[in-house]
Design brief:
7% of the residues lie in helices and 40% in strands. The protein has 123 residues and is mainly beta. A hairpin with a 7-residue loop joins β7 and β8. The chain is globular, with a radius of gyration of 15 Å.
Length: 123
């Protein structure tokens, strides 16, 4: 089983990995203790493609201080092809072109020398 730290370390290295329940096949991302589908604690890891679709988004116009220079920007809820979902910043997509259902692909975002973050760009 991977920990949340290992999940984010992997994402920072460019790889998305989910947990897969060996009992029922349910995927979990980020990692959790028990399977929400069957309640078991029997996990293996499963690589994810990083490809998905925007299922919800919001535009941040007044950002926290450390992200103020990047505003406005969009944060999206992305459902990956495998069925699990993540939040991430949308990059390299003009805000006026962001739509529900648009295809996106996992990317890393690094700003001002800060730690990399989960982001999604054009597929």
């Amino acid at each position: 089983m991977i920990s949340i730290k290992e999940f984010f370390d992997g994402a920072r290295a460019g790889t998305l990995t989910a947990l897969k329940c060996r009992q029922c096949g349910e995927l979990a991302i980020p990692p959790r203790e028990f399977c929400v589908a069957c309640g078991k604690r029997d996990w293996t890891t499963a690589p994810l493609s990083g490809e998905g679709r925007v299922t919800s988004f919001t535009v941040i116009r007044v950002a926290p201080r450390r992200h103020a220079a990047a505003a406005p920007y969009a944060i999206a809820h992305v459902t990956l092809t495998e069925g699990v979902a993540l939040l991430g910043r949308l990059v390299d997509i003009p805000l006026e072109r962001v739509t529900l259902g648009m295809p996106v692909r996992f990317r890393l975002l690094s700003e001002n020398g800060g730690p990399p973050a989960i982001a999604f760009g054009p597929a």
